[in-house]
Structure formats: C-alpha cells, structure tokens
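Section 4.2 – Deliverable D4.2 (structural model, holo form)

The reporting period included a commitment to supply a predicted holo structure for the target in complex with magnesium ion. Inputs used:
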Amino acid sequence: MAEAAVDQTATPVAEASGLGKIYRRGAEEIHALREISVAFAPGAFSCVLGPSGAGKSTLLNLLGVMDVPTAGTLRVAGATIAEGGRLRLSEGGRDKLRRENIGFIFTEFFLLPTLTAVENVQLPLLWADKDDRAYAAELLERVGLGHRLTHRPTEMSGGEMQRVAIARALINRPRLLLADEPTGNVDTTTRDGIFDLFRELNADGLTIVLATHDRELAARMDRVVHVREGRVVEETA
Amino acid sequence: MTTPILEARDVWRSYQRGAETIHALAGMSLTVQPGEMVGIVGRSGSGKTTFLNQVGCLDTPTKGTITLCGTDVTGMPEKELVAFRRDHIGFIFQLFYLIPTLTAVENVELPMIFARERDRRARAREALARVGLSEIHALPHQLNGGDMQRVAIARALVRKPRLLLADEPTGRLEHGARVAIMEIFRGLRAEGLGIILVTHDPTLAAETDRIIELRDGRIVDERKAG
Ligand SMILES: Nc1ncnc2c1ncn2[C@@H]1O[C@H](COP(=O)(O)OP(=O)(O)OP(=O)(O)O)[C@@H](O)[C@H]1O
Ligand SMILES: Nc1ncnc2c1ncn2[C@@H]1O[C@H](COP(=O)(O)OP(=O)(O)OP(=O)(O)O)[C@@H](O)[C@H]1O
Ligand SMILES: [Mg+2]
Ligand SMILES: [Mg+2]
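Output (structure tokens):
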C-alpha cells in the first residue's frame, strides 16, 4: 500500500555511495562503515537492520548530517555533503540543512522535564525564532496526544513521551525522518502503536529510515537494508 | 538577617492509588540559605525527587507552604508560577536531557528563548566557559557524559537562578567527571547560590554543608557533612 507512493526514479531524499566512516581514538582506528552504497527514495519507509555494533547509528548520524563521513559521497535533501571523501558543505551549512530537513527520533526521548508537551514540541522552531504553537498542538493531535498538550513528561508513560518526541521531530516539516531504535525503551504493545504511527506518517508521504536490531519489527517493513560490520550485506524489498 | 532562598514548611504530597493514599512527602520542612549546599539522601522511593519537584514548582503540594526568595509560591497561578520558576530555579538531572540535534551552545540558549531574551549566543558562551566546556559547537552525541552534564549545568545557570536543584547529577558519570562537576558546584556555592543536591554518591555528599536523610517522605536524620 505504502509502496505505491514510492517513485524509485525520483531523486532520492538521501543517497550514499562508497560511504565510509572511521572513528579515531588515539592511535586506534575503528571502521564503523565501509563502502556503503544505498539510496532512499521519496516516500519510502526503509529499515536498517543489524546486530549491535553493525554501524546503524553511525549510518543514521551521517544521513541526518549529525556527523560527517571519512570516505565516499553523500547527498541529503538535494545538498552534497561530501564527494569522494571530501567535505562539500561547511559546518554552518550542515547545521542549516539538518535543521530544515531532518527529523530525528532516538531510543531516549530527550524531553525537557520542566516543559509541557506542547513546549517540548515547539522547541526546535523557537530556536529558529519562529513560533508556531498551533502547529505544535496539531502535531500532538496527530500523534494521539491532543488532550495532553500542557502535561509535563513526568506525567506521561514511555509510549506517550515517545509520541511527543515524534511530534517534535516533525515540527520542521522534515523531508527525512530518521528513527534510531525508537522502540527500544517501550513494551511490545506500545512498540506496535508507535510503529503504526510511523506507517500512517509514511502513508502521508513522509520518507522514513528506521534502524533497529528487532527482526520482528523489520519483517513488517517494505524494504530492509541489512548491515553487518559496517557493510550492507543484503537488501530485501 | 538575609532572606533564605528556600523555606519549605510542613510540605505534604499525597497520591491516591485506588483506595490507598500514598504520602510521598509527609511533613517535609527545610530552609536553605544563600551560599548553602544541602545534600539529600534516602532510599529509592523515599520522596527525594518528589521534594525537588515541589520546591522547583513542577508540582503542587497537597499541604504546606513553599517560600522562595521571600515569595510564597503556594497557590500562585500557574502562569505566574512558571515565570517565577524560570527566573529563580535551575534544574540538573541525571539524564542531562539535551536536545540531540542542537549543538552545545544552542542547547544552552534554550531557556533564554522561552524567556524571550537577547544576547543569547554571548550569554550561552559565557555560561559554557564558566563550566569549562570549549567544544561549544559539538552535538551532544560527540561529547562524553561529563561534558554533556557540563552543558546541562550551563543551561541551568544561564539565566542566573538563585537556587539550583540537582537530582543525581553524577549518577551516570565516572569518577573524574564527578570531581569536575563537584568543583563547579563549589564555585557556585561561593557565589551565593543555594544548592540542593540529591545524591547516592558519598564523595559528593561529603562536600555538602549538611545532609538530610529522607524516609517515607520525612526527615529522619540531619548531620554535618564530612
Ligand atoms: N563516537 C565513536 N567513537 C569511536 N567509535 C565509535 C563511536 N561511535 C560508534 N563507534 C563504533 O563504531 C561501530 C558502529 O557503532 P554504531 O553505534 O553505529 O552501531 P549500531 O549498529 O548502532 O549498534 P547498536 O545496535 O548497539 O546501537 C562500533 O564498533 C562502535 O564501537
Ligand atoms: N505521579 C505519581 N503517582 C503516584 N505515586 C507517585 C508519583 N510520583 C511518585 N510517587 C510515589 O512517591 C514516592 C516517592 O517517589 P520519589 O520519586 O520522590 O522517590 P525518590 O526518593 O526520588 O526515589 P529514587 O531514588 O528511586 O529516585 C514513591 O512511593 C513513588 O512511587
Ligand atoms: Mg545504535
Ligand atoms: Mg528520584
């Protein structure tokens, strides 16, 4: 159903070729990603699946322009971040690109305990000197929390907090939503509810990449990119 | 005599769980003077976080009064209370709560955004310098735990609060980082801030001026630290 919306010939929202990432810790080199070539078409809902340490978070951090590659080419939201291992976008340019185009969700919710749900959702916009409380409220409505606008995180369950975090990730109307193990902290019923929400958002046209080591979750997705030891070992659609 | 930063008098916080009433706080009283650092210890569930939430105006006591810097905040309308909290209180938590997609300096700017203040970048830089963080453009995931907590402390300090509430601030940190964080707290105390520090860490507790121990929402022991 969601697959029908994906146009594989359209310019990908994110595209990597020969992408590599080496972390250096003193003299030690950790090859977190090697020769990754993968593309994410607009409207696709993709899973990055792999065991712990495979490089899933590293890949999502690069796609989300939270970090930069040490090899290869990376294009995100129409901008070239690196080409042939050389950076093409300044730190300021990357910050702007990320802020305007990317939504991020993590296992931890990172909600500020001193703020209400709607304030937490507004945060990224306020930072840019914009204020759209009405849209923040609309997004909370969208994730099923329209009745909890002024509640603080301490008054919410884990699943509700993650929904607030999802609403916050959507406040900049992102072209790409990245979810790194988003259901790692919640029980399976809550997990399924959050997964259904991702499906709905995708059906509305949002491009989503979800990283997980949960095979059961991956089995429900249209496309799975299997990562192991920093390489793409298989792609299933 | 100076005005105390905090005077909590006979504070109760009760929850209804089915037919049962749970008294998370059962008559807590505490006074904190400027330049005083008070440690709170006690078993899990003894009411430590609940107490900080009352003092920090994040929750409303079932009974009792809380006076901050001479102002009785009990019964203050919600809007005023939020403004009062933002002007007077800084919070630090075990889990930092930094926004992962914003840089260190941007995270520190957040409280000023809500207060609609100017010179945000300059003041955020100043606060980060104060806690000794030089990588101000790093994203949280690029920092180690100790440096993430420095950012969180800078964020708590940037609007110059009078009272700092810290709930297990070093719970996730290794020894070196704990010592560094304690050093920052010492400096703040010397500047006249009131600090309430909930901690299980004996080295941290030993640095406070006095330690109170909670059990079942009450003070069962109070002693000089060290
Ligand atoms: N900041 C860093 N510095 C050094 N090494 C790192 C850093 N981040 C990740 N690594 C290493 O890179 C490799 C890939 O890590 P990554 O976090 O991407 O894996 P993952 O697939 O997300 O694992 P998990 O399922 O446990 O989250 C690992 O060997 C990890 O130790
Ligand atoms: N929202 C709530 N609803 C019902 N009971 C609550 C609520 N918040 C706290 N309690 C109860 O109040 C008591 C005190 O909890 P509190 O979180 O203050 O303890 P704590 O001393 O901070 O413990 P810890 O060391 O585990 O953080 C506990 O019995 C807890 O179950
Ligand atoms: Mg990971
Ligand atoms: Mg607690």
